[in-house]
Design goal:
The complex is a heterodimer of chains A (781) and B (283). Chain A has 781 residues and is of the alpha+beta class. Chain A contains 20 helices and 28 strands. Chain A has a seven-stranded mixed sheet with strand order 3-5-1-12-9-10-11, sandwiched between helices. A five-stranded mixed sheet of chain A has the order 7-15-14-13-8. Chain A is globular. With 283 residues, chain B is α+β, with helices and mostly antiparallel strands. Chain B contains twelve helices and 14 strands. In chain B, 52% of the residues are buried. Classes of the chains: A alpha+beta (781), B alpha+beta (283). Chains A and B meet through α3 and α20 of A and α12 of B.
Chain lengths: 781, 283
């Protein structure tokens, strides 16, 4: 073939159906006789439920049933039982029993003939509460005297997790020439998926099977969790993730509403559908981030880094979510050293219950927070030692390595070559010229700033042994089956569950490239526990990194099997057979006498003349447990201008040089980076959940919660370097989260650089015009 | 997103609307629906009956004949694109072009907008600065109210039960320099602060100025201090700074902030945006 499909920027095959409205999402699926479920939700952040009076609702025409927490025993499991942290797991009932713990906590469900009646009836359920005090800030929550959310968690402490040796760390800091420090508020974010959550559950009384269509990133995890909750055996449970419109981590969790729909269909014998509104979504879909951090970096007077340490108050919300406790711990502190040659790292992370929406993964999950604090401290270090921020980074970079580099946090990076990415980004930005331009602009009262980030991150989750060692109650391997039909068509069955990442295209490219099967003859199948092999789902940038590795193994088995059949048909030895990239098999050196893979597959199906011991049909499967994580890296640069009259920030340029190893489809990679950048820059500039002191979410609608918009952004300037992972069979590293991980500090540092002449050194995110303006006023006085 | 049950009728005439709204205590008039329907979907508004006026021909059309007359059902998009509006009151065309998004501008109407009287909406600020007159048909016949008197408070107008806005009249400002500028809220795109100016010029001297502020206050309001500071000046930096200080002082009692954009910020921005509005007007 002239052009390899692996590496081609072809258009995504799934897009036509997505952008023409033909794709079927959960709420598009209609079943006859469906009951509609509405959830009666608490208007209070923290209250005793005294009484639930459903009589008026039950009297309404079209209302079939109303259930409360007393009617069921459906606690939501916690999946991240982080070891050696004193973690407590107070019960999280699907519907509150004695107490509600955040605004939106479910108190009752109404089942009715249509959605309008369901909502009318939900409004008619009378709940009486004894309102208790609310607590919304994780740092305040663990202090004496704060309202206590769970009896099992004194001082609202969910866990306390320590990384590293405190005495050794203290010694490094005590002896260091330079220590820089910062208090950072990683504000709470509301993941904004295009599609809100929905669930449709159908109990089949005849076969005793339950089918759930649901907006999830991981149907197999849902099946494992639901079998325990519902008592329906796993082989009688089918979870289907139809088209899913974005997740960003917030669709990992098994939610109360989803479990309730399953429970209710068993109770009523009728299908039950729940589909939330955007208001419900913002109140009850998990939020992200929510840290208050005290962080410090120790260095020599020459600006060589020595140690990093933190005290982190991590808000968990009202209940521990599926992976929530793993995010500010494992996925956060282990990457504290970034790309720099630290000799010491220490973290003290306190998980705090608050009377707020539960906190879960949000794109990047722990690593954006880590990269932010590290890059913020690197800029402060540059200031303290009076060196250029880019040069301070350069002098501290870990030198190039191809197969393993162990950092003080205990993890071993796979491969890295950081300086070329930095050089490339600096050249693209015209960094040295920019400093002159900046100085000139300041003379004219214009405030330009530049931010530089060099980063690596930990993704492609991950070795299952590590999950076991740290307390994640799940495996982290992946699966792939290539199933050929008699007519030579390929179904590729994957245990992951893509929901916007382009898997239908990129995985087909891998198969086409390796096996020569035409793209149109390859279907990527995922998101249905009855048709796909067990797998752990799509999050943590693991599609290509882990499932891609599983597929690569299946491809090897496929080729080996095809060669055995080809050798039999060509009367040769299997080891003499060549499988070329156009799907032809022949004896090496004799390409004219070839068998097409389709012919081999057909003969394998017919079974008329099989080689000895050859299994008929044509199907291979591969299950792959990665030996390590993957560690993409890169360098990002932002250039901003601050309007000092208003505090408004204009992002003038954004340069991203990322290294995710070989790219399957550069257009999909660019799309992933674009999306991540927008979300990461959104955190820096405009996004932020705000609760009042009573625990009311003030940013509960898109009128108030500022999702970033296209007009905030210049054209992103992207480039890449290619450093293969030594352990991933295709060399691939993940790329789904790099944008959010690197961009927030890059833009933040650019703004601080712009404001430096005005004496502004710190502003809490998001850097809204009002906050920036206020900081400028404060610095003046 | 699931409103309460309601009745729907399509009105046959303005008189029909007056009769139906006067009789039906919980009836609401539906024009473009882009303020009312979202409130109904959130169940913040639960009218028993919607009276759809969107097809009444008497309430449509824009004409310029000595004064500018804009039918209440004119959409924001129609007003923004109207050559007559651009000539008679460029600031109004500019403001209507900044309302919501394309969908809102294509459906939302000027009459509906001012009847709703959202304090952060754009057109009211221009109407107050422009000295517009709101023409109303009610149970007791026709009347007219100046825009300044029409906007009473947060979501509150001079409209009485059974009233229908028929048209908005604006004097011919084609000889004046007008502009509307706003700082848009990053989520809603409503005005955090919006300022409209109408400046009569004689050469480089401003002979008369009308200034209105919205977004930062419960209703669009004039700033007499800023008007005085600008009038008679050559709109130089000193005059602009004086006007900016005056507008901040004039709204100091009325300014209305929130957790993200507090009073002090909105007050300061009223001054900044006043200067920007003047500069935009004199281009």
């Amino acid at each position: 073939m002239a052009t390899r499909m692996f590496g081609s920027a072809i258009k995504r095959r799934e897009d036509p159906r997505l952008i023409t409205g033909k794709a079927k999402y959960t709420d598009d699926i209609k079943l006859a006789g469906t009951l509609h479920m509405a959830v009666v939700r608490s208007p209070h952040a923290h209250a005793i439920v005294k009484n639930v009076d459903a009589s008026a609702a039950l009297a309404m025409e079209g209302v079939v049933a109303v259930y409360t927490g007393k009617d069921m025993n459906l606690p939501i499991p916690t999946g991240a039982l982080i070891k050696d942290s004193g973690l407590v797991t107070p019960e999280h009932p699907s519907l509150a029993k004695e107490k509600v713990r955040y605004v939106g906590d479910g108190v009752a469900i109404v089942l009715a003939e249509n959605r309008y009646i369901a909502q009318d009836a939900a409004d008619a359920v009378r709940v009486t509460y004894d309102v208790l005090g609310a607590i919304v800030n994780p740092e305040e929550a663990v202090k004496d005297g704060a309202p206590q959310i769970h009896a099992e968690a004194p001082n609202n402490t969910a866990f306390r997790w320590i990384m590293g040796d405190k005495a050794a760390s203290d010694k490094v800091f005590a002896e260091a020439d330079v220590v820089v420090k910062e208090r950072i508020v990683q504000q709470r974010l509301q993941p904004t998926t295009m599609e809100p959550r929905a669930a449709l559950a159908q109990w089949n009384d005849a076969t005793e099977e339950l089918t759930l269509w649901v907006t999830t990133q991981n149907p197999h995890i849902h099946r494992v969790l639901l079998t325990g909750m519902l008592g329906v055996p796993e082989h009688k449970l089918r979870i289907i993730a139809p088209e899913v419109g974005g997740g960003f981590g917030a669709k990992i969790d098994l939610y109360p509403d989803e479990a309730l729909a399953c429970w209710a269909t068993i109770q009523t014998g009728r299908p039950v559908k729940w589909a939330e509104t955007r208001s419900e979504n913002y109140l009850t879909m998990t939020h992200g981030r929510d840290h208050v951090e005290y962080v410090e970096l120790a260095a020599t007077k020459d600006g060589n880094v020595l140690g990093i340490r933190s005290l982190v108050y991590a808000g968990m919300g009202a209940y521990l979510t599926t992976f929530g406790a793993g995010i500010p711990t494992i996925l956060h502190a282990l990457i504290y050293c970034g790309v720099y040659t630290f000799s010491s790292a220490y973290a003290d992370v306190i998980g705090a219950f608050t009377s707020t929406t539960p906190v879960e993964a949000y794109r990047g999950a722990g690593r954006p927070e880590a990269t932010f604090l590290l890059e913020r401290l690197m800029d402060k270090l540059a200031d303290a030692v009076n060196q250029d921020p880019a040069e301070v980074r350069r002098k501290n970079l870990i030198p190039k390595f191809e197969n393993g580099y162990t950092v003080p946090t205990g993890i071993t990076y796979d491969s890295g070559d950081y300086e070329p990415a930095l050089n490339k980004a600096l050249a693209m930005a015209g960094y040295s010229d920019f400093r002159k331009e900046q100085a000139e602009a300041r003379k004219n009262g214009k405030y330009l700033g530049v931010g530089v980030t060099t980063y690596t991150e930990i993704c492609g989750l991950g070795p299952s042994e590590v999950n076991g060692a740290v307390g994640f109650q799940a495996g982290a391997w992946e699966s792939s089956i290539i199933r050929m039909s008699p007519t030579g068509k390929a179904q590729v069955l994957l245990g992951i569950s893509p929901h916007g990442q382009g898997g239908a295209t990129s995985f087909a490219q891998i198969v086409n490239d390796a096996l020569g099967i035409p793209m149109d003859d390859i279907e990527i199948v995922h998101g249905d526990t009855n048709t796909t092999p067990m797998g752990w789902g799509t999050y943590g940038s693991r599609n290509a990194a882990v499932a891609g590795a599983a597929l690569a193994g299946a491809i090897t088995k496929f080729k080996d099997k095809a060669k055995v059949m080809a050798a039999h048909m060509l009367e040769a030895a299997a080891e003499d057979i060549e499988y070329d990239s156009s799907g032809k098999l022949y004896v090496k050196g004799s390409p004219d006498n070839a068998k097409a893979i389709q012919e081999i597959v057909l003969m394998s199906h017919l079974g008329w003349n099989l080689p000895p011991g050859f299994e008929p049909s044509f199907e291979v499967s591969n299950f792959y447990n990665p030996p390590n994580y993957v560690y993409p890296f890169g360098a990002h640069i932002a250039i901003v201008e601050v309007d000092t009259e208003t505090g408004a920030i204009e992002l003038k340029r954004y340069i991203a040089v990322d290294d995710c190893g070989p790219q399957i489809n550069p257009m999909i990679v660019a799309g992933q980076i674009h999306g991540g950048l927008v979300q990461g820059i959104g955190q820096a500039l405009c996004e932020g959940a705000v609760y009042d002191s009573n625990g009311q979410l003030l940013t509960g609608s898109m009128m108030d919660y500022a999702v970033p918009r296209a007009d905030m952004f210049p054209n992103f300037e992207l480039d890449h370097t290619v450093t293969p992972s030594p352990h991933q069979p295709l060399g691939i590293k993940g790329v789904g989260e790099t944008g959010t991980i690197a961009s927030t500090p890059t833009v933040y540092n650019a703004v601080m650089d712009a404001l430096k002449p005005l004496g502004v050194t710190q502003v809490d995110m998001p850097l809204s015009p009002a906050r920036v303006w206020q900081a400028i006023q404060n610095a003046k006085n | 997103m699931w409103p309460k049950e309601f009745d729907y009728v399509r009105a046959s005439s303005v008189d029909d609307v007056i009769q139906q709204t006067t009789n039906g205590m919980d009836a609401k008039i539906l024009a473009g629906g882009h303020s009312l329907l979202p409130a109904m979907k959130l169940r913040l508004s639960e009218p028993g009956k919607l009276i759809d006026i969107s097809r009444l021909p008497d309430l449509k059309g824009i004409s310029a004949n000595g004064t500018l007359s804009i039918g209440a059902l004119s959409t924001h998009a129609e007003i923004a694109a109207s050559a007559d509006v651009q000539q008679y009151c460029a600031a109004l065309a500019g403001a209507c072009g900044q309302v919501g998004d394309h969908q809102v501008r294509n459906f939302g109407t000027l009459g509906g907008n001012i009847a709703h009287a959202d304090p952060a909406s754009d057109p009211p600020t221009v109407l107050v600065a422009a000295g517009a007159t709101i023409h109303i048909q009610g149970a007791d016949g026709a009347r007219s109210v100046s825009a300044e008197d029409f906007f009473v408070d947060l979501f509150t107008t001079d409209l009485q039960m059974g009233d229908v806005i028929t048209r908005v009249e604006i004097p011919n400002l084609s000889g004046a320099k007008t502009a509307y500028v706003k700082m848009a809220h990053p989520a809603s795109r409503y005005a955090i602060v919006g300022v409209a100016v109408v400046l009569q010029m004689n050469g480089s001297t401003c002979t008369s100025a009308r200034v209105a502020v919205g977004g930062a206050t419960a209703r669009a309001m004039r700033s007499s201090g800023a008007e005085s500071a600008l009038t008679g000046s050559s709109l130089d930096d000193a005059a602009l700074n004086a006007a900016a200080a005056a507008v901040q002082s004039d709204i100091s009692e009325a300014v209305m902030g929130d957790v993200n954009y507090p009073d002090s910020y909105r007050q300061a921005m009223a001054g900044v945006y006043l200067k920007r509005a003047v500069k935009a007007a004199i281009g």
